[in-house]
Amino acid sequence: MKTSIATVSISGDLREKLAAISAAGFDGIEIFENDFLAFDGSPRDVGAMIRDAGLEITLFQPFRDFEGMPEPHRARAFDRAERKFDLMQELGTDLMLVCSNVSPVSLGGINRAADDFAELGARAAARGLRVGYEALAWGRHVNDHRDAWEVVRRADHPNVGLILDSFHTLARKTDVDTIRAIPGDRIFIVQLADAPLIDMDLLYWSRHFRNMPGEGDLAVTDFMRAVAATGYDGVLSLEIFNDQFRGGSPKSIAVDGHRSLVYLMDQVRRREPDVRIPLPEMPDRIEAQGIEFVEFAADEAEAEELARLFASLGFVEAGRHVSKDVTLWRQGGINLLINTEREGFAHSSYLVHGTSVCAIGLRVADAAATVARARALGADTFDQPVGPGELAIPAIRGVGGGVMHFVDEKLAGLWETDFRLTGGGKAAADAGLVSIDHLAQTMNYEEMLTWTLFYTSIFATAKTPMVDVVDPAGLVRSQAIETADGALRITLNGAENRRTLAGRFIAESFGSAVQHVAFESRDIFATAAALKACGFKALEISRNYYDDLEARFGLDPDFADRLRAENILYDRDGEGEYFQLYGPNYGEGFFFEIVERRGGYRGYGAANAQFRIAAQKRHLRPETVPRR
Ligand SMILES: O=C(O)c1ccc(O)c(O)c1
Ligand SMILES: [Mg+2]
């Protein structure tokens, strides 16, 4: 599989783009003419610079408004093409993209366009070059790959081929199976892009909102399956026009791009088993079975405070690590760790972020296979020395550089092996928390696509639609990644500014991290009562909220009173009901939540988030409330 990415997809100057693209593992680039024009160097120098970066130029583009022109435009278009052929030869590339004409003076007519391409093909062939024709979704006469293919077919010249671009085909909802009838060797290059579904003008959508395959909502996998079925085995090239990417990190966008192609082709291979796809073998997407543990890094003083917080939630100290300063706190099926080691990963995490979640452990069927898939998708693995007799838990790096461990059956004795379990005390404190319902990771808005792709490509998960959460100081966008059975649920919250609670958390904990952990109760009212006995202080919710709730859902006044008395938030949809109880803010804005799901409720109480955030803001230490 040969991979390529258009230089427009990445931010920075040409040199920065090349470094990032090459480091991410691409074989080549599509050079956008403007990137070249803006660069102060001769075409030969640019070509050499690209090859020195270990990359080939897979395509030169775009060449506009060529086919179907009346004279004198027609002659001028051919002159322009000859100039660009000169440039291509100096750069060292043999393929030019001609996009369908948008000029109001163009005449249309399949045969006229085909004749123009036959002549262009002859001129290209004289120099050992090739031209490919792409239908722009907003082309004046040709805006569909089927018509572009008909032009190419009638041009009937070996140096003239078709260029497919998933965006143009999918944006117009053209049936992708029409691609299956095109001979694979007549397709000169395939451009790939996804996009979020937004109802807007096609040109504007294409030029500003494209994203990597798998990051948006288009059926790029179905498109690519159809392309693969033609026998096409040439370059797969990302062509992503995205305002956010233009200002983003060249490195992470290039890494995301490469990951998106590996993920895409892995999916295609599994769904088109008869098509040979040259991609290293890797395990299929991993079924995550739940969260085995959450580990906090702290110093000794803060560890005591954290321990008090755990105790107030009904957890009991259940053991100590055999060789490390790590304590285990347990309740139901939940394991929380407090790590106060003075060296190693947890300690460096503490030094950078303060008291915070430094690692999580996921239950999977096969930990080694999970790491193998993550590696194949370009994730960084994580290793740390283990003491004699202790178990090595395979791990990778996740959001904010945090560690994600994988625990499988082979590690079933983990707690008994690595910990001196003290047992006891369980019955005394239990507040009915049975498992972790979800984790919430807070990040800058620009990172959300990166981590959505990370989770959905490694794990058999789906993303829910993005929702807007209103913080009094700005918007926070929230999207959940979840398994079909809900065993793993992670919400990603993207802050657009530093004054929101989420933005403040990122600023004060120096990076993206887990901002809250939500525990599952099977009886929220019993839990609320038990927690009171443990000394738990619930976040106080505005009384006005309950008046509205009662009216909105037509709640029984007694039921509304019970919610109000316990500061429990409530939501309901066609499937079921949702109850939420919040603890106090801890440290830089970390908190615990307790939820109960009744019936088939699958959401996260987005409608309540605004009121919860307002309540949390009222409880912030006054000196830390950011000034405007
Ligand atoms: O937006 C454009 O003009 C444009 C140009 C070249 C392409 O390959 C494309 O997909 C879009
Ligand atoms: Mg294109």
TrEMBL record:
VOC domain segment(s): 290-409, 435-584
Pathway(s) this gene product operates in, as recorded in its UniProt entry: Aromatic compound metabolism; 3,4-dihydroxybenzoate biosynthesis
Annotated catalysed reactions: 3-dehydroshikimate = 3,4-dihydroxybenzoate + H2O
Biological process annotations from GO: 3,4-dihydroxybenzoate biosynthetic process
Cofactor: a divalent metal cation
UniProt entry keywords in alphabetical sequence: Dioxygenase, Lyase, Metal-binding, Oxidoreductase, Pyruvate
An example molecular function term from Gene Ontology annotations: 3-dehydroshikimate dehydratase activity
Residue numbers binding a divalent metal cation: 134, 165, 191, 239
Database matches in InterPro entries: DSD, Glyas_Bleomycin-R_OHBP_Dase, IolE/XylAMocC-like, VOC_core, Xyl_isomerase-like_sf, Xyl_isomerase-like_TIM-brl
EC number, as in UniProt: 4.2.1.118
Chain positions recorded as Mg(2+) binding sites: 438, 516, 593
UniProt superkingdom: Bacteria
HAMAP family hit by this protein: DSD
Biological role stated in the UniProt entry: Catalyzes the conversion of 3-dehydroshikimate to protocatechuate (3,4-dihydroxybenzoate), a common intermediate of quinate and shikimate degradation pathways.
The family this protein is said to belong to: Belongs to the bacterial two-domain DSD family.
PANTHER family attached to this UniProt entry: HYDROXYPYRUVATE ISOMERASE, XYLOSE ISOMERASE-LIKE TIM BARREL DOMAIN-CONTAINING PROTEIN
Protein name from the UniProt record: 3-dehydroshikimate dehydratase
Organism field: Stappia indica
